[in-house]
User: What shape does this take?
Amino acid sequence: MAQDMKIPFAKFHGLGNDFLVVHGRGLPRALPGFTRSILSRNTGVGADGLVVVLPPRSKKHDARVRFFNADGSEAEMSGNGIRCAGAFLVGRKRRKRALRIETRAGVKSLETVQAEEGKWTFRVGMGAPILEPAKIPFKAADVSTPVLGFPLRTHGGVWPVTVTSMGNPHCTVFVADYARIDWASVGRKIETHKLFPNRTNVEFVKLISKNEIEVRFWERGVGHTMSSGTGSCAAAVASILHGLTGREVRVRTEAGLLEVAWPEKGEISLTGPVELVGQGTYFYP
Assistant: This one.
């Protein structure tokens, strides 16, 4: 009989959005199948996503990371996932307070704001949002930049949406009351809408004040998550573009607060916590 592969892992969560972090060396070649197996909440370790840490391509950087969703698909970027990667790296380089990490969405900077045993707060330089439809990508015809209040037709009705990218595609819907909408069902329909060739993440945003919003998240390849880093950034960007908030926004998720700032003509910063859940070995058949 073939022996199981023994894969060391660490599990973190960023406001309830949980990730398994593993070294890239020694992993199975078929990463989508391995991802689905280890992320299964019934027969695996269980998490929303997998973060694979690899050596950087440039000596100027600390690491390269790849993000995988629960369905085995690969994401370009994850705001919560990269903080988990940061905690994984800082935990092994205890004097290192600033990191530069390569992702499919570019090089991201992380600054340690606070650190204690098993808990960290990071400020992440997320880059500037992508607003051009072709680069998101969003395939609607004759649509202007930025895409604000576009009437997206679904089997569940027509929804005015704001479409952006944080290196991964996002679709934001403003709502008045979560109790009046089956937002998870709507999110499922929008995720796979034909106008999003790479599928999309979906945020449902409720305005609280000029500096605070509340958000529910439907993540591409995962489903409902307690929070989302790139989703929080996209929700804040949409709120700012509509003139609903200032450029510093508190994002109230189901698991706590994230802070997003978008200085005029600057890059977005995302500040939030990470906690170590545990470490162990996964036996991959």
Q: What stands out?
A: The chain is about 15% helix and 45% strand.
